[in-house]
Design a protein that fits this description.
The protein starts with a helix and ends in an 8-residue tail after the last strand. The strands form seven sheets. A nine-stranded antiparallel β-sheet has the order 13-14-16-17-18-25-24-21-20, with no helix packed on it. Strands 8-7-12-11-10-9 form a six-stranded mixed β-sheet, with no helix packed on it. Strands 2, 3, 4, 5 and 6 form a five-stranded antiparallel β-sheet that branches. The chain is globular, with a radius of gyration of 23 Å. With 633 residues, the protein is mainly beta. The chain has a single domain, classed as Neuraminidase (6 Propeller), CATH 2.120.10. Helices cover 11% and strands 29% of the residues. It contains nine helices and 32 strands.
């Protein structure tokens, strides 16, 4: 079997004192973890299966905004009492959803509007990753594992649901305010808006105008309708939001028919296969009524998704921009940091099994002031992919076309646009390290070290051995950075750039902590830091002791470094996302995504947040101490 985390701690990692503390603290009972080290003074909670939000004593939460809440006075709120009767089957539902908060909220970024004021107000940018159709439309079966005939028949019977679902995806921008002792959103704010799967977006960077970005509707390859599959995100130094398009493959179908055509270029087929696109009907069924999601009808449409999307929350008139210089893959995270030399570095993960960690470095330096001065920074730079060596060293490998390496025409890359469009295959060619679903990546606010959440990989084997995944033959066994076979609980890696230079090419890395029964948590997804430098972790997956997903704090700042405390437990079936603090650290915003996802409208498994017999709905919550003190204290 592969070496377990405890063995790694005893050998290569034991020189680090805080990880020695972590190894010792792993066996401590939960009650012993209470204290004030690193400012963490709360009494940890225990895991729970209850259908509610559970927080430590002295903490409260506000349900800030829910799927379907109106963002404009002229748009009604969603009436969830009518869902079981099919209220979303009408065209009017799609029109309303365009002015309502989207569903399955994920990443959150807070943009303060009145800096320095005690009565906070600001703009929340929130990703709306996907729609849980089974909890929206009566008679619909789960998206995955359902026979395509059912999906086709259901969409054909109710074709307007495609427009409704498309309107529920994307990004919500909403003004929020803390007043009267609680957080609420402003329904009548001029800032509020929705960016959906049909919102016009500008294509920027090296792939703009490339042959593979051109479609019948956009023959120049410069403008695409919509964004979806939006997962984690980030905030630029000039005040814009970066949204990561992740699992776009589940919206495109009919690739079997495309492969049967003799006139299709091999690059297109290889790229689509690398994403494991659907041979027949897609699970969501958009391709039943919207031809741009049918690969045979529009072979290039899928190439226009899987990018990082930049949104200016303060300028509703500015179209979102897909920044192709940052590569195309199942983006999870887009975390910018300014390097000592002034360049912008953006860290990104590809959230799939046996995929890669990436970094983009701008050519030019970040300018202070208005975003217009920095507009080209995300178009002109170099994308790198990470190789983690067994001795704890690592290097960033440039994804640049035809510079003497393997990224050339002989390897199937005719130009830089093709390298970026099929960045996954470029990472293969460079020999990057295959990871266990690298999701969120965050940078420590004080020392600049980089933390990578690897959620899990149940397909990794205990020993080296060839296998197939992602339409390629690979070694499914463990490697130094992913040391456990059948990695059910995931782990977090700490990376330190050489010379603390985020624009550099070399780094050192360590496994910081692994999930499991001895640690009490599993499947780390989004992560974040408080002002003191403690690492906050939210989870997405089965927990080792059977409780619901939740939020945990890993002490990186105090005398109990390595101690892990559970701070929050979420409702039944929910994934916890977001993990965003206000600048004063007195509020923590969390997304509660897909509560009750194992149920249906007729047989719900959760009634959160509305209670009673109402169906569940994804929501953003604002967590704070009842006395207004710092969160975590």
């Amino acid at each position: 079997m592969s070496r377990y985390f405890g063995d790694l701690v005893e050998t290569r990692l034991s020189r680090r004192s805080f990880l020695q503390s972590a190894a010792a603290g792993a066996a401590l009972p939960w009650a012993a973890l209470a204290g004030t080290a690193g400012g963490l003074g709360f009494t940890p909670i225990r895991g729970s299966k209850a259908d509610r939000v559970i927080l430590p004593r002295d903490y409260v939460h506000d349900v800030l905004i829910r799927w379907g809440d109106s963002l404009r006075p002229d748009v009604p709120h969603l009436d969830t009492t009518q869902l079981v009767a099919g209220s979303l089957f009408t065209p009017q539902a799609a029109l309303a959803q365009q002015g309502q908060f989207g569903t399955n909220c994920d990443a959150i970024q807070f943009f303060q509007l009145n800096e320095g004021a005690r009565s906070l107000n600001g703009l929340l940018c929130v990703n709306n990753e996907y729609a849980t159709d089974v909890l929206m439309y009566p008679g619909r079966k789960p998206v995955f594992g359902t026979h395509p005939d059912h999906v086709r028949e259901h969409v054909q019977s109710h074709p307007s649901i495609v427009a409704t679902s498309q309107a529920a995806h994307g990004i919500s921008v909403v003004e929020v305010v803390f007043e009267g002792g609680r957080w609420r959103y402003r329904r009548d704010s001029a800032w509020n808006r929705r960016i959906t799967a049909t919102t016009p977006c500008e294509i920027r960077g090296p792939a703009r105008g490339a042959a593979w970005m051109r479609t019948r509707a956009d023959p120049e390859g410069v403008r695409v309708l919509g964004t979806f599959g939006n997962c984690a995100g980030g905030r630029t130094p000039w005040g814009t939001y970066l949204s990561a398009e992740e699992n776009i493959q589940d919206y495109f179908g009919n690739f079997q028919a495309l492969r049967a055509r003799r006139d299709v270029d091999g690059f297109a087929l290889r790229s689509h296969q690398r994403w494991r696109m659907w041979d027949k009907l897609s699970p969501y069924g958009w391709d039943v009524v919207d031809a741009r999601f049918d690969a045979l009808a529009e072979p290039n449409e899928a190439f226009r998704f899987g990018w990082i999307v930049e949104v200016d929350p303060r300028d509703p008139a500015r179209a979102p921009r897909k920044r192709t210089a940052l590569g195309r893959f199942a983006h999870e995270a887009a975390t910018p940091v300014v390097a000592p030399g002034g360049q912008l570095a953006v860290y990104m993960g590809d959230d799939d099994r046996f995929e890669y960690v990436y970094k983009y470095v701008s050519r030019d330096r970040v300018a202070s002031g208005a975003s217009a001065a920095n507009d080209a920074l995300l178009d002109e730079g170099t994308l790198y992919v990470a190789r983690f060596n067994a001795d704890g060293s690592g290097e960033w490998l440039p994804l640049v076309h035809d510079t003497g390496g393997p990224l050339n025409a002989a390897a199937g890359f005719r130009n830089q646009a093709e390298v970026l469009i099929n960045a996954r295959a470029a990472g293969d060619a460079l020999g990057a390290t295959m990871m266990d679903r690298p999701e969120d990546i965050e940078v420590h606010p004080h020392n600049g070290r980089v933390y990578i959440a690897c959620t899990r990989n149940e397909l990794r084997k205990d020993a080296a051995g060839a296998g197939s995944y992602g339409n390629r033959n690979i070694d499914l066994g463990p490697n130094a950075a992913n040391p456990r076979g059948k990695n059910l609980w995931g782990h977090i890696i700490e990376l330190r750039e050489e010379g603390d230079d985020h624009a550099g090419r070399r780094f050192r890395w360590e496994v910081l902590v692994s999930g499991g029964r001895d640690r009490g948590f599993g499947s780390p997804d989004n992560i974040g830091f408080d002002a003191r430098g403690n690492l906050w972790i939210v989870t997405d997956g089965e927990q080792p002791h059977g409780g619901n997903n939740g939020c945990y704090v890993f002490d990186l700042a105090g005398g109990e470094r390595g101690a892990l405390r559970q701070f929050m437990s979420g409702p039944v079936g929910a994934e916890i996302c977001g993990c965003e603090f206000t600048p004063d650290n007195r509020t923590l915003f969390l997304s509660v995504q897909h509560p009750g996802e194992t149920g249906t409208l007729g047989r719900p498994t959760s009634h959160w947040p509305d209670g009673g017999r109402l169906p569940p709905r994804a929501s953003v919550i604002a967590v704070r101490r009842a006395d207004g003190d710092i969160v975590g204290s």
